[in-house]
Amino acid sequence: MVRDVSELINIMGIPFNNLSKQDLIDNITASDTGKNFIVTANPEIVMEARNNLAYKNSITKSDYIIADGIGIIIASKLLKQPLSERIPGYELMMTMIEYASKNQKSCYFLGASEEVNQAAVRKLKEKFPELIIAGHHHGFFKLDDESIVNDVRKTQPDFVFVALGMPRQEQWIANNIDSFSKGVFMGVGGSFDVVAGEVQRAPEIWIKLNLEWLYRLIKQPSRFKRILKVFEFIFRMIIRKY
Ligand code: UDP
Question: How far is ligand 1, taken at its centre, from the CA of residue 112, in Å?
Fold first, then answer.
């Protein structure tokens, strides 16, 4: 893949694109290949890549790696190469869906439970009546299941949102992107759960104060182990032991 020319900032071996959400959208929509793989990376993803070379190879196959998570912004400041803005994956997905609906572009929704997947598609259709749904499928399948790849290939979506959680979603995209002729592919984690109303996003004030991670931890204490990884990430950045 050809990495975009915008400034790259290396954080623990992961090359982040330093660009705003609008610049990213403009680049993608102007792309003449029509094919883009976007990783919205948070500290958990960077730590996973540090410990799992196959995963690192998957995410560095992407066209764009953007900062999703205040931990990444803090790290870039510690490196004295500040990234201009945090781009939450959920917001990027919603902006792309809005763009798709206004421009007769089709979307495929892959991931989450059958129930959440269907509810998310239904809610999006209500919010964006013009939205073209190329297809959708739940996310509980074997990574090498060819029938899913065939369905996406057959329906030729312009945008493919993959909500399988990290690391599966980026692995699925990296493994299969060469078999598609076009499309913007992006891992979106728990975003379908938010769209379906199963999980609430943090209130605006928590987001503004960069405390969305704390809100999620309070709501889902089972995420505690994952938060420890975030602290390890920040600690390593402070002591410069990558
Ligand atoms: N999921 C899936 N298939 C799997 C494992 C997870 O479709 O094999 C879905 C899960 O139902 C949820 C999403 O992937 O909708 C992962 O959400 P999580 O909150 O873990 O993602 P994050 O945003 O934290 O990366």
Answer: 6
pLDDT of residue 33: 67
Gap between the Cα atoms of 144 and 162, Å rounded: 15
Q: Is residue 220 part of a domain?
A: no
In terms of residue numbers, what domain contains 166? 8-17+34-196
- Going by pLDDT thresholds of 50, 70 and 90, the confidence category of residue 115 is very high
Domain count, the chain: 1
- Check whether 6 has a pLDDT greater than 60: no
Bridge partners (DSSP) of residue 17 are 8
What strands, in cross-sheet order, belong to the sheet with 183-187? 64-67, 35-41, 183-187, 159-163, 106-111, 132-137
Domain membership flag for residue 54: yes
The response to whether residue 47 sits with its C-beta less than 6 Å from ligand 1 reads no
* CB 88 less than 6 A from any atom of ligand 1: no
**CA-to-CA distance for 54 and 51, rounded, in angstroms?**
9
* pLDDT of 241 above 90: no
- Domain for residue 209, yes or no? no
Measured in whole angstroms, the distance separating CA 156 from the mean position of its chain's CA atoms is 20
Residue 140 maps to which CATH number? Answer: 3.40.50
How many Å apart are CA 85 and CA 73, to the nearest integer? 8
* Distance separating alpha carbons of residues 141 and 14, to the nearest angstrom: 28
